[in-house]
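Okay, can you check this protein?
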Amino acid sequence: MGVKGTSIGAVFFVIASALLLLSPSPSADASPLLSACRFDQVYQLGDSISDTGNLIRESPLGAALPFARNPYGQTFSHHKATGRCSDGLLMIDYIAQALGLPLLNPIKDTKADFEHGANFAVAGATALSSAVLARHHVRNPATNSSLDVQLQWMKDHFHKFCHNDCERMLQNALFMVGEIGGNDYNYAFLQYFDEARDTLRIQELVPLVVAKIKHAVEKVISFGARTIVVPGNFPMGCLPIYLTKFGLESEVDEFDENHCIWLLNSFATFHNDRLKKAIAELQDKYPYVTIVYGDYYAAYEQLLKLGETTGFELHKACCGVGGLYNFNETRMCGFPGVKACRDPERYVSWDGIHLTQEAYRMTVDWLQADLFWKLRCHH
């Protein structure tokens, strides 16, 4: 890539995982720690790391996408795709299970039960609107259901659900505001990134994205939210899609100790640091609300640290074809003739972009311990 020395911007989505052996608390074990928090509902905003079926219901285009058919969903739903961008369950599914709640239904499933929460996340969604991104020469090819659109869906849902009593109805609900914003950077990097001169252009999006997430947190507080987790972005330089696009041209010294492109990962840190600052400002402004940072980046790092000793395939996609990382953007998972590996439980990456069910499960194992203390569920 030839851009060493410049900080860079964050990414896309995916977070890998970590075993509770490496969890931040010495008391963490395999039990569902979050059940002690006693949340009775969960509400999710976000993108493909969390979408359990909204995009495929949103338009005819969604239903024609690769993750609306096999091999997506093969591990969880017996070869029937659900719209999840993985071979099976996602992080939000495991979070719901850890809380002792049913899996969240996508809000676009009009026949679904929303007694215990709802999922508003849309695969491909961005924090910023398509119009704002266009002004920065970035195009969203997947959906117009940005964070503002999802917030409007949420507002409409609560208008029907709460019956003018949201403060009481939502007092024990958990709100997940993200992960969101990774796609804003992802589309920019993949569409026009060309060495260091474009890094600064992409970096200009960060304050806009963080401000939009901050606005979303304030909106859900106005709806009645009292407990909010705001996840950060993931280390994009570890994903097969980026290792394929940029890593093959990189020099040895442009990789970190995990064989990830350090320049790309530094942008994730750049975004995450500013997001943490925004969360601290929000917590000061709303002392009666619990607002915590979800450290998805650290969870991914923990998996990579353990991966070599557990036999995990860290950087190669399970479902894909060709090249050092089993990823080809012209023949991606779900395309005709592209097959999945036989043992996705040994892979971090499912399709070069998203994680496997097993990686998501291990990620939530680590996050449970982290969030258990941050949310003060032990009190």
